[in-house]
Amino acid sequence: MRAEALKGHLDALLLAALEGGPRHGYAVIESLRERSAGRLDLPTGTIYPALRRLEQRGLIAGEWSVVGGRQRREYRLTAAGVRALEGKRADWLEFTAVISTALGGEPWPARA
Amino acid sequence: MRAEALKGHLDALLLAALEGGPRHGYAVIESLRERSAGRLDLPTGTIYPALRRLEQRGLIAGEWSVVGGRQRREYRLTAAGVRALEGKRADWLEFTAVISTALGGEPWPARA
DNA sequence: CTACATATGTAGCCGTGTTACCTATGTCGC
DNA sequence: GCGACATAGGTAACACGGCTACATATGTAG
Predict the structure, then answer these.
(1) In angstroms, how far is C14 C1' from A1 CA?
(2) Which residues share a beta bridge with A63?
(3) Residue A41 sits at the chain B interface (C-beta within 8 Å)
(4) A3-103 — its CATH code?
(5) Buried b (16+ CB within 10 A) or exposed e, A15-50
(6) Which of B's residues 21-40 have CB atoms within 7 A of nucleic strand D?
(7) Can you give the residue ranges of every domain in chain B?
(8) C-alpha–C-alpha distance, residues B88 and B69, integer Å
(9) Interface residue B39 vs chain A (CB under 8 A)
(10) B-chain residues near A12 (CB < 8 A)
(11) CA torsion angle A46 A52 A54 A55 (round to 10)
(12) Cα separations (Å) of A56 from A50, A72, B85?
């Protein structure tokens, strides 16, 4: 998968990964890899700065903990993050609908 | 629509816009605007450089003409461009499938 | 004691879309 | 005639954000 295609959609992915409960960065990477059958294998240099951006924007909240002698930063969705995720899911649907239509040549399931 | 989300998909859009026959840049913009019910209104500063990139890569071929006293650069798909469009459509389907799955929470219509 | 998985992070690069300009011609309204 | 606008093409500088490469540290397996 072209990696640069992710641009603008990573935040939604990260928020979605935290939807099922708090996770630390490393676990987010694994979670996305599993959910996508290995096709989304994002490097730490992508994930960690992105999580910090989300935290600064107040969409997630991070907290340090120590598990098995290792430092972890666990992130959880804030109320604003939940709302943001909702909006981003709607954006994603609109985005795919618009591009799929413009791309043509492929049947697009009937839209509401 | 968040404009930056386009990143990585613009080429496919442009190739698709030329699929129905040769067009010049300005017409491509209008074509995309119409096909998307006004939601894709791309500035010339996005389209013209992108068309030149595609031409340099040999996916489209441009030719000057004069219509109504105005200079036009008509672009048409090359054989390589047709193949590239095919590949990009497949990429798009895979991309949306992967992201939609990872994003969860939204049903993804059954694919062929 | 080496290697690897786990875990977090930063600096700098690069692609690419945007913003803000510029040029030129034809047409319509005044 | 002249201004405004649609048509038509273009460039330079910027900004955003994901990637590459690197640095650090601990636990576990060989």
Answers:
(1) 18
(2) A74
(3) no
(4) 1.10.10.10
(5) bbbbeeeebbbeebbebbeebbeebbebeeeebeeb
(6) 24-27
(7) 3-103
(8) 36
(9) yes
(10) 103
(11) 160
(12) 10, 18, 39
Token pair for A78: 């804030």
- How high is the mean pLDDT of chain B? 89
Mean pLDDT over A48-54 rounds to 96
Tell me, in Å, how far CA of A63 is from C1' of C10?
20
Looking at the predicted structure, is the pLDDT value of residue B32 above 80? Answer: yes
Q: What global pTM score does this model have?
A: 0.88
Residue B37, Cα to own-chain centre: how many angstroms?
Answer: 16
Per-residue pLDDT tens for A60-94? 999 999 999 999 999 999 999 999 999 999 999 99
Strands across the sheet containing B60-67: B23-24, B70-77, B60-67
Q: Which residues of B are less than 8 Å from A91 in CB distance? A: 1-2, 5
- Cα separation, A62 vs A18, whole angstroms: 11
Q: What is the DSSP string of B69-93?
A: TEEEEEEEE-HHHHHHHHHHHHHHH
User: DSSP secondary-structure letter at A109?
Assistant: P
| Arithmetic mean of pLDDT, B33-56 | 94
Q: Which two tokens stand for residue B112?
A: 């062929």
pLDDT of residue B108: 45
